[in-house]
Amino acid sequence: MGETLFDKVWDSHVVDQLEDGPDILYIDKHLIHEVTSPQAFSALNDKDIPVFRPQQIVATVDHNVPTLNQHLPIKDELSRNQVAKLRKNCEEHDIELYGLGHPYQGIVHVIGPELGITQPGMTMVCGDSHTSTHGAFGSIAFGIGTSQVAQVFASQCLLVSKPKSMRITVDGELKNGVHPKDVILYIIARLGTDSGTGYFVEYAGKVFENMSMEGRMTVCNMSIEMGARGGMIAPDQTTYDYIEGREFAPSQAEWQQKIKNWKSLPSDPNASFDKEYCFDAAEISPMITYGTNPGMGIGIQEQIPSSQNESFQKSLDYMGFNQGDTLNNLPINYVFIGSCTNSRIEDFRVASAYVKGKKKAENVNALIVPGSQQVAKQIQDEGLGIIFEEAGFLIRQPGCSACLAMNDDKIPAGEYCVSTSNRNFEGRQGPGARTILASPLTAVAAAIEGKIVDITQL
Amino acid sequence: MEKFTRLEQTAIPLDIENVDTDQIIPARFLKATDREGFGENLFRDWRYDKNDKPIADFVLNNPNFAGPILVAGNNFGCGSSREHAAWALTDYGFKVVISSFFADIFKGNALNNGLLPIQVNDSQLQTIFKAINENPSCEFIIDLVGQYIEVPSIGLHIDFEINSYKKTCLINGYDDIDYLINNKHKIEEFERKRNA
Ligand code: SF4
């Protein structure tokens, strides 16, 4: 029987198997950030254990950093402390840190791919659930808890049971105005937020084959929102072209050998999956969420479904919606374009192409937060910055920002925010804030119109 | 890690589905650099209003309910990987969470912190909710060695599954990290072969 992409990468990283228990899985790259690492370093220090392979770890600061005046000391004492602690820990353990002010700093899931650290066939972990993003390159990448961060520090390995495999195929042609974000919101809305639990997903079919790397990252990023540990897409020419020439990409001498290995990774034609789903691209419209989990999504023209479930009703009460409502034309005051789901240069190219020559609606606060210093620079170099500024958008410095509102970038209670991030949980963007997830195109259109609109109908 | 074998105590019902880690511990409380004190902000925005006044109808503020066992709706712990969620629950005093479904990362984090996640089926979960709501002081027996839950007052007995390796860790208070370090020779051997 054939092997899946997931099998090939997993099996080649198994150091040992415990009888009836988990595998010892070798980890190629470990990314860390300021919020989920300090307790792991303490665990190590308490036991007097050294970091086993510091050169396989890369650190950055993203979750709590301010997006204004990054050259000044951080005002919030606790955040400043956390960032300082990461610096100290990295110095003590000889770990490369891209801190504030470094040209490579940015959201951990944006910088890995952009620097060529993320490569096909690797195993990667980070104390962050959206590590699934890196699966876009055909790597096994998943989020871990802080105890596991300590395990990887200590041994470059994890004790984990092999998940089951799922394939989600989307064939056909996407309609104009339908973006990768819409595709993944559609899949999660169809399958539900717990459908992937226990599984690793492979996305297959024409839609993903034709997708850019940025789009594939958006899709894999949100795998966790259906409960899956991660998502993967088979590497192909698009993948190689993206990696080639980046800072930590394989050198010329190694390149041909790497490509040869990467070409052997895609699932064999006769490989079988524990679960399979297929969707037709033509069915997908621009999507929007109406509730407090990412599975509560509908096409912009559709009505909020009805349900007797109490948790469902509680969620609609929080959002201020009723069963049967449509969100089309809903007035909104906040728009957030950023996060590890949609803060790459391609997202801003799409957004600025639409914004060019228009002005944002008076009532709207529109925040643009690039995913990394490199993206921030590209935005300026390519002239996108001027387009956004002339339209009245605010451009900030890189970080997670209003995605999780650990810094000052919060949405006020009761306000709707059309957001390109990945989670619409209660209070995610600030206590009482109401998040509506959408693609960057839908988000900028909302900023211009001051209300939710269906881009395909404009 | 603290050992867990058996307990006989009361439970608290949190009859809400898809409780995500942002509800268990909101992001703004993740700035601490040690593991203690998160219990104070467990379910912060459900427990307290804007003025930090306890919200009376939230179950943790209801004096009728108490105990180290949390019973929660389907898909508990979805969302972020923050282990702070497990720390907040244990810091508050929980030792067991019962639900009909757990998110993967949360489940792993719980097990790594001596917090036992027990999965039951939907109808069993409803029976348990009903038992607590009708009699908040009903005792639960949670026996990890025998892998069962019992509620003697209603004659309920449920066997549950747990990975045998994880069970051994919990019973003995072992960490995965000790196991991995003891296997370093194998890891180095793996690296040598790969680079050869
Ligand atoms: S952008 Fe949001 S989802 Fe992504 S890593 Fe940061 S906080 Fe997490």
Task: Describe the protein in words.
The complex is a heterodimer of chains A (458) and B (196). Chain A contains 15 helices and 19 strands. Chain A has 458 residues and is an alpha/beta fold. Chain A has 3 domains: 5-160, Aconitase, domain 3 (2-Layer Sandwich), CATH 3.30.499.10; 164-230 and 260-283, Aconitase, Domain 2 (3-Layer(aba) Sandwich), CATH 3.40.1060; 289-457, Aconitase, domain 3 (2-Layer Sandwich), CATH 3.30.499.10. Chain A has a 5-stranded parallel sheet. In chain A, α12 (345-355) links the parallel β15 and β16 (365-368). In chain A, α12 packs parallel to α15 (440-449). Chain A is globular and about 55 Å long. The model of chain A has no long low-confidence stretch (mean pLDDT 97). Chain B is of the alpha/beta class. In chain B, α4 (104-111) links the parallel β4 (96-99) and β5 (116-119). Chain B is globular. Chain B has helices at residues 21-24, 44-47, 84-92, 104-111, 122-134, 164-172, 176-182, 184-195, and strands spanning 6-9, 11-14, 69-72, 96-99, 116-119, 140-143, 148-151, 156-159. Chain B starts with 5 loop residues before the first strand and ends with a helix. Classes of the chains: A alpha/beta (458), B alpha/beta (196). At the A-B interface, α2, α3, α5, β8 and α11 of A face α4, α6, α7 and α8 of B. The complex binds iron/sulfur cluster (SF4). The site of iron/sulfur cluster has 13 residues of chain A, from loops.
